[in-house]
Amino acid sequence: MPDLYPWLRPLLFATDPEFAHHLALAGLDVAASAGLARLVAPRVPDAPVEAMGIRFPHRVGLAAGLDKNAAHLAGLATLGFGFLEAGTVTPRAQPGNPRPRMFRLVEARALINRLGFNNEGVERFVANVERSGYRGVLGINIGKNFDTPNDRAADDYVACLRAVHAHASYVTVNVSSPNTQGLRDLQTEEALGQLLGRIVRERDELAQRHGRRVPLAVKIAPDLDADAVRAIARLLVRHRIDGAIATNTTVARDGVAGLPHAVEQGGLSGAPLRERATAVLRTLAGSLDGALPIIGVGGILSGDDAREKIAAGATLVQLYTGLIYRGPGLVAECARALARV
Questions:
Q1: What pLDDT score was predicted for residue 43?
Q2: Proportion of the chain in helix, strand, coil states, percent, rounded to 5
Q3: Number of domains present in the structure of the chain
Q4: 3-class SS at 91?
Q5: How much is the pTM?
């Protein structure tokens, strides 16, 4: 089938990045509902893999952040992903940071965003999941509201876990976004240990009550030093966490200095993040020594980039910014590359 994205990208890139984001998702929804999306979707190999007690059709998934409200699952499912991760969702709706808050760095194939967990709240999120009819592997990424102090952050995570438990294949605890003030402080050894202890107790109580154990993953930042990554690895094992995601966006500006928008505040994603994210992934994998699986994310814009994540210790990978620059064909390219590893 022909790849239409090279024709569509100039039109999308001529508009504001956040508007283009919503426009593309709306168009995908229309194409999916009309049955057109599947006609042009590239074929993706069936290469199942087991991780976190879940059977994934193949190793390539969608990263959190693109569908914050789980409002586009049916459309995104037509692109051939092995799994989708929606969110980040918080207990209460919140608007996020003021606009403009998303910027393209086209020369570097990168984005900077400071969206700030903008979402419609967990009640609306769950209703969207129920309406979607999506039956594939669904990760749900949860966070805290911006005005919830860190010493009460566990209340927000637990509230979200309870709300999404029945609908999630796995739940990701997001403590690594740079766009909610103070959130990354939850990655310190003491704070993360207390947070995970509370969330794991809730996970186990929900499993006993409902007869269904939902795996937990923790998403970490690419800006941690090796000692901090090793400390997190020990905590993940100690608290019986089921998986890790490495990594979120970075506050560093490696490879983009001097480019338009490079000085904007927020998290940098895309090609310049690849090496930094892979280095953290490699350190985490070495520290875990196979104790739990890792999802590698950050800077994947080709099948070779995806293979690099697997070689560094990942079991699965996720895409986001690469989709914006390469289009849906990237999903199949990465899936084909990883079907051979």
A1: 81
A2: 45, 15, 40
A3: 1
A4: coil
A5: 0.96
